[in-house]
Amino acid sequence: MTPPEKAVACNCSHCSRMGWLLSFVPADSFKLLSGEEQLQEYLFNKRHIHHQFCRTCGVHPFSRATDRAGKPTVSINLRCIQEIDPSKLQVQTFDGKSL
Q: pLDDT per residue over 46-86, tens digit each?
């Protein structure tokens, strides 16, 4: 994975409380290497975004959804990737609270 230069910080009740810094990729570009058996799904609000969290430690590493064009997309919580320094990312704010 090429580390992104930008991240999105959403202010909705879920993302802001979890401290997510997001990067979005097409679903076919995302490959989970291990731990799928430990994942649990969390749906809230309009139930369109399938948030995944670890049943063992509670970390929320990614979510699955579709973009505005209807294409399957994965949002990755960049804070879960050890090789990424969040302080080096240009952060764009998204007003998810108003949706």
A: 788 899 999 999 999 999 999 989 999 999 999 999 999 98
Structure tokens at 26: 């097409």
> Any idea where the domains of the chain sit in the sequence?
6-98
Distance (Å, whole) CA 51 – CA 69: 20
CATH architecture observed for domain 6-98: Beta Complex (2.170)
Amino acid at 76: I
pTM above 0.90, yes or no: no
Q: What are phi and psi of 16, to 5 degrees?
A: -65, -40
9 exposed, middle or buried (CB, 10 Å; 0-12, 13-18, 19+)?
Answer: middle
Q: Token match 């063992």: residue?
A: 56
